[in-house]
Amino acid sequence: MTDATPAAAAPQPAAPLTPAEDKQWASFAHLGGILWILPSLIIFLVFKDRGTLTKQEAKEALNWQITFIIGYIILQILVAIITGIAVAAAIASGSYYAGGITGLLWLIPGALWVLNVIFSILGFVKVNGGGSYRYPFALRIIK
What we know:
Elements: H1 19-31, H2 38-47, H3 52-92, H4 100-105, H5 107-128
């Protein structure tokens, strides 16, 4: 018995991005950092082979988001440890007040998130204006 269904054609590669689309997706890769790593990762995976500017800027945004998440997690752990030590010391001394410093420590991860938003917006504005943006400090994990 013969198979009547035709052989499936190989998928065609996606069309390259126009210069306007390339700039648009490259700038969105930075702006997506406001929502953490997922938008930058999706843009990098979907459009990296379709536009050179998008590949470059999405990779930069993705490297920054990885750096940011690592720093954020480390800060959260350190703040939790310091708070636990302060509370244990306060209880051991017979006091139930761990000090205002422990409350202020919890603002540090929030400040890091604000820094992420600022850098993401700066990257968006710079790339949308026709330039290129490099974060002041980021681990270059994605090459």
